[in-house]
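SAMPLE LOG
Freezer: B-3
Tube label: C17
Construct: single chain, 104 aa
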Amino acid sequence: MASISDAIGVIRQAESDADSIVEEANKKSTEMIQEARAKVDSEIEAAKLEAQDQAKHMLLAKEEEAGKEAVIITNQSESNIKESLRGSENNVDAAADVIIETVL
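STRUCTURE (predicted):
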């Protein structure tokens, strides 16, 4: 009977060892999952910051471009206004000449 008792003891020890191995594996698995989550969270945060930085640079570039276009449009508008005023002044002189010729 000693051999059956020894066999049962060996089986119980094997079960205990297996339980310890499973428990250790679960601990390691939990640690790995936590490390992976922390790494992913860090990478996501870094990606968000990079995206915000790129968006800021794009916005500044577009604002600069819009400012340059506004200057060009303003200069063209001023030039067109001056040309229109010169044309109007010429028409005033011509109209005055017609009125003077008609009245006199």
